[in-house]
Amino acid sequence: MTDRYASFVRSGAGRALVKRLGLPDPPRLRRHTPGDPLLTGPALLGSATGGRLAGQVGTILTAAGVELRDPATAEAQERFGALVYDATGITDSTGLRQLYDFFHPRARSVLPGGRVLVLGTPPDECGTPREATAQRALEGLTRSIGKEFGRGVTAQLVHVTAHGDAGTATGLEATLRFLLSGRSAYVSGQVVRVGAGAAEPPADWDRPLDGQVVLVTGAARGIGAALARVLARDGAQVVALDIPAAGDELAAVANEIGGTAVQLDLTAPDAPTRLADHLASRHGRVDVVVHNAGITRDRTLGRMDADRWDSVIDVNLSSQERINDVLLERGLIPAGGRIVSVSSIAGIAGNRGQTNYATSKAGVIGLVQSLAPALRERGISVNAVAPGFIETRLTARIPLVVREAGRRMNSMAQGGLPVDVAETIGWLAWPASGAVSGNVVRVCGQSLLGA
């Protein structure tokens, strides 16, 4: 679906009009193309006094081919592909002044499509209430930067456990590589937690899913089809699943990526068993399960019939629980496996006329948060993505005024693309992301709706 307003804004006449009237100005987002460098310019790496991560981050970025600059010696007029700041040394509110000292003189020095990352300690791991208070304050900083810097610049906060292991270091590297790259074009204002957990660095960061068997449900079109393409591009052997009615489209996607197609109605009583049997006989395991299948049956609650309620809950939430149960009971998801579920910002903020959908998507968040501690003991991570306004066939049917509001009410002033959701799920699926678990990452361009 074409965003005609964004196309007009990028014309000479449109740019002049937008500037004169103060209208939304959608930037061109920096999206990933295989072979791209991590950043379009050098990274300025700073640290609060006593920060524990700057040295490790510098080593990771240098190995990834990023040029580093020191705040003490960087030229005043130099522009940067990223500003990266280790705030783990801030132990009380007075130390927050160091953030101002680093970011204030460089607020206009980030290149279009650049990145801002702040590294902190999870507040629940802090040794004193004052330290926890200061670390919690970092969320306000990063979310405000995401709304202020513009020009496609994103800003994130990464909480890194102080009780990690080798898996934490790998998980931090995977997270840095995702958040600094064009893969994260429509992700901004997020808090990502890197904890302890098993994580394996890939032999080739351009193919981080080599050798992985990945199941994608709802793969025939939209986000699911983009998912299948991105995961295959990154080296995965994709098992693409959708309902029999979408068989032709599903087969086309599977053939395009060299994957296999499975036609199955996930709400059928025997669906989990049939799926488990297929995966066991064909592959012997499934390294990554991506729960993408979902439906909408919109109606205000007072006018909603029971079938609309039941079908949405069953497809969007209950089917995920049933499939997880069978695959885990049969040991088909091995240690080092990943489960990624698709939620929605509707599950965070609610949405008029979508009580069934919002309930199901909030339930997905609950599923992730409740499973993460138990699965951590088995070396399996579980995370969710929560898309905002993504340009698909479904959003194309939304009335014009509502559609335009959905596109513009975020820091990027535009809708996201299915590939933006796919890239985020791809990162969470990497073996290198094993220390990232229990997270809910919004892919919404930092929507003004929700938390």
Automatic annotation (TrEMBL):
Domain of life: Bacteria
Domain Ketoreductase: start-end pairs: 212-388
Annotated Pfam families: adh_short_C2
Annotated SUPFAM superfamilies: NAD(P)-binding Rossmann-fold domains
Entry's Gene Ontology molecular function annotations: oxidoreductase activity, acting on the CH-OH group of donors, NAD or NADP as acceptor
SMART domains in the record: PKS_KR
InterPro entries xrefs: KR_dom, NAD(P)-bd_dom_sf, Sc_DH/Rdtase_CS, SDR_fam
PANTHER family according to UniProt: 3-OXOACYL-[ACYL-CARRIER-PROTEIN] REDUCTASE [NADH] (PTHR42760:SF78), SHORT-CHAIN DEHYDROGENASES/REDUCTASES FAMILY MEMBER (PTHR42760)
Family note: Belongs to the short-chain dehydrogenases/reductases (SDR) family.
NCBIfam families: PRK08261.1
Protein name: 3-oxoacyl-[acyl-carrier protein] reductase
Organism, scientific name: Micromonospora haikouensis
